[in-house]
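This part of the workshop introduces the protein records we will be handling. The structure tokens are whole numbers drawn from a learned vocabulary of backbone shapes. The record below serves as our worked example for the rest of this section.

===
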Amino acid sequence: MQYWRKDYFTSLKDLADAARAVPEWADYAAFCEEYERGMRSDAFTILERFIASLERDSFDKRRKFVSWILRESDGRKGRHMLIPHPLYLRLIEPTLLEWISVEPDCYEPHLWLGGYDDLRRAIELAPRNEITGKKFILAILTRVGHATHELLAGYLGNPREDLAALSQAEILLQNLSDENDRSQLRVDIARERNLIEDYLR
């Protein structure tokens, strides 16, 4: 059977199956199952119960779920369905911030917070981590792309700092195992570098 956004609902089913392996996550699994069936109201009632329960649990139990859900949902279609706003706002973000406080030298919470400065810190803590490296390269390209997208009117930022960031991105490419990713990102980095160098000339 073919239906709208099939990949999104496949992701819900996959995570429901995986969450069932941990008894404490049964309500999250049930949320995914009801959402996959199109029972949105019932799904969010179950999700509320899950969040309320895990909010009161220990940091270690919250961290275990947060680490799992962020890894499992990373790169999946329909990620916003797997991590609805109430789950992120009430459970995931507070746990990530607490994690940084509890383990300041751990790269993972910085990785999943995902802002530019967060990813830069994650790279400092785990310079050879492939997931962190790719995400930071993409963050650099996004930031530089914002600076170059209106070059006819002027440069939005500091071109020399952006050239240095692109050089760092080129170094990080060496840690990526996927040749297609490396090739495409190399092209993207070169394009931004050429735009900046042309502007400086």
